Amino acid sequence: MQAKQPTSQWVPDILVEKNRPDEDVLDEVYLLFAESDPFLPIIHFVDHATMGPEALVGLGLGGKVEKWISRHRVRPYKRQSTGNFRPSAWTTFLGRADAHGDWLNYFEKELETQPFRDVLARWAPRFAHEVGAFLFHGLIRTAHAVRALDHKDTPARRGELARGLALWAIGIKTDPPDPVNEPPRDLNVATELLGYAKAGAVALIQRPNVPRVHLVTGPMAYHMILHHLEPADHGTALASFANTHARVVGDFEIKKPGTLSHPIPSFDDQELDALVAQSDAHPIKLTEAALRAFDRTKDELFLKAAGKAHSLHSLRSLLGIVKALVSRRVA
Asked: What is the pTM of this model?
């Protein structure tokens, strides 16, 4: 790959949206981690072992997944169940860790008998009032599973979608609000999502850390499932993003000029190999999401944000994750 190509030509050479190489490696990963603990020990942060590989495949790096996943452990996990889960009373089981097994069992059974698109279209709008649950990771894990299913519908991928939806469910702390009005017909939902991602990109460029990565990857995750949902459903999600991104949207015009001096990475083979060499999935997911956003906007802010992928690892970032989980804020 030539690093000196015009910027607009780099992304199509990297992103793979059709006929992705080594696609089947995802089924191996999903089966391997099907019963693994969804949370890391000690800090109880969400495990990214299944999300990183799907982003790598999206970057055309599926051949690197086996090496990357070898640095991640499968950790035994016992599903917690209340024993009295009722889908008709689903709101009473939101935000409950002790119902995680109930949600998993329910979604697994639903996805065994129904098209995954129907299950997603029914439940994503019910959860969309808290797109930021678990620092957006319920949404993000769901979205990566959906994109994998868009490429190939297999039992392993349906199982991963069940795990994404179940994670999202137990991260939600509030009941759904009254129905939100449908977005105006002249409002482009995809453009709105890209706008939130852009505001997140500026915040990330100014101060790179892991929590701020999700201000980019969160909206871009919803962007991945957008085409499966009805237009009337997007009002709730957009209202939720308006809340999670309020501070960075407010600071956007003030902080954007400070991004002018930040460099754009080369995105050559050496740069991509450095992503795979890290065991953390955040740099990989950030790069894939930012390149996808650039591909749709041609705004170099997203390339500059991707350039911060190697600046995320520090004690300060770890403390930022903990603080964000406690305060439920990432800005």
From this structure: 0.92
